From TrEMBL:
Activity regulation behaviour: Feedback inhibited by histidine.
Domain of life: Bacteria
Cofactor(s) needed: Mg(2+)
Native organism: Parvularcula lutaonensis
Protein name (database record): ATP phosphoribosyltransferase
Keywords: Amino-acid biosynthesis, ATP-binding, Cytoplasm, Glycosyltransferase, Histidine biosynthesis, Magnesium, Metal-binding, Nucleotide-binding, Transferase
Lineage: Bacteria, Pseudomonadati, Pseudomonadota, Alphaproteobacteria, Parvularculales
This protein's pathway: Amino-acid biosynthesis; L-histidine biosynthesis; L-histidine from 5-phospho-alpha-D-ribose 1-diphosphate: step 1/9
Coiled coil: none
Membership in a protein family: Belongs to the ATP phosphoribosyltransferase family. Long subfamily.
Gene: hisG
Molecular function, one GO term: ATP phosphoribosyltransferase activity
Length: 302
């Protein structure tokens, strides 16, 4: 990021709140870069300015983002689904954040975990337990929805994994990415109560800011479409086009081109909107395709 010299006072600029550091922040800045946006950062590192669009970036704690959007202090936010759903389950957002769009990155799970030595056969095994968590609203809601009786959330802002060993709680409910931290502390996942990913959230916008938000969303959607999409080219027997089209995952209608001097063969070009795995290539080869190329797509608009 290059430094920005002017203050955060541009009228009419859309405000976008993002996490200032951490995994979600890294993934968010990568998304903005892939959207073709260049950021100029303030000297105090509290905000940044987008050069290509009238957007100012607020660099804040992730758990502050839903409240900033709900209050109107920020127009949009990129936040983990776990944080957003906790605020929503706690009734703190009401209907002030009408826009919620999944972004497909920073995926994780909110899980209830128990010491490995405890047998677990279902939610009722949690009856009467104390569960250490920083997501009490989501935890309590899941417990109530699943008929668990007498269990209570013990709110902790960190070090949930050692709570059972300290005698503070009988179980934990925390974010899990790989499960390595739980395993190292003698815990095992019993239930997944939420699958989380990054969300683009937004409040009620003026007509001017809504146009800026649509321009940003259009770029984000282009990046999302190209993330797993592949451009596939091959030479193939004319008689096998129908079978080849059926094999390609989520493919658009292919473009068929004549091959000079080969009336029985054609060139097939198409976009596949899902990952093209080796098994697909092997099946294409079996159907007579040759010179198969699978290329990444940098940008794509519908």
């Amino acid at each position: 990021m290059t430094p920005v010299t002017k203050g955060f006072d541009a009228s009419g600029h859309l405000r976008l709140a993002v996490q200032k550091k951490g995994r979600l922040a890294d993934d968010t800045f990568d998304l903005l870069k892939r959207c073709g946006l260049t950021l100029s950062q303030s000297k105090n590192r509290l905000y940044a300015r987008v050069q290509e669009l009238p957007i100012d970036i607020l660099l804040v704690r992730d758990d502050d983002i839903p409240a900033l959007v709900a209050s109107g202090a920020s127009d949009l936010g990129i936040v983990g689904g776990n944080v957003f759903e906790e605020e929503r389950a706690g009734g703190r957002l009401q209907d002030r954040v009408p826009m919620v769009q999944k972004l497909g990155f920073s995926r994780c799970r909110l899980c209830i975990a128990l010491p490995k030595e405890k047998n677990y056969s279902g939610p009722r095994d949690l009856d009467g337990m104390r569960i250490a968590t920083s997501y009490p609203a989501l935890t309590d809601k899941w417990l109530a929805d699943n008929g668990v009786e007498g269990a209570e959330s013990v709110v902790m802002n960190g070090a949930h994994e050692i709570a059972p060993r300290l005698g503070v709680a009988d179980a934990v409910c925390d974010i899990v990415s790989t499960g390595g931290t739980l395993d190292a502390n003698g815990l095992a996942v019993a239930e997944t109560i939420l699958n989380s990913e990054a969300l683009l959230i937004g409040g009620k916008l003026s007509e001017e800011k809504a146009k800026i938000a649509e321009a940003l969303k259009l770029r984000i959607e282009g990046v999302q479409r190209s993330r797993d999409a592949k451009y596939v080219m091959m030479n193939a027997p004319r008689s096998a086009i129908e079978k080849i089209s059926a094999v390609l995952p989520s493919a658009d209608n292919p473009t068929i081109l004549e091959l000079a001097g080969r009336p029985d063969m054609v060139a097939v070009h198409t976009v596949c909107r899902e990952e093209v795995v080796w098994e697909v290539l092997e099946e294409l080869k079996r159907l007579g395709a040759s010179a198969i190329l699978v290329l990444d797509i940098d940008k794509m608009l519908a």
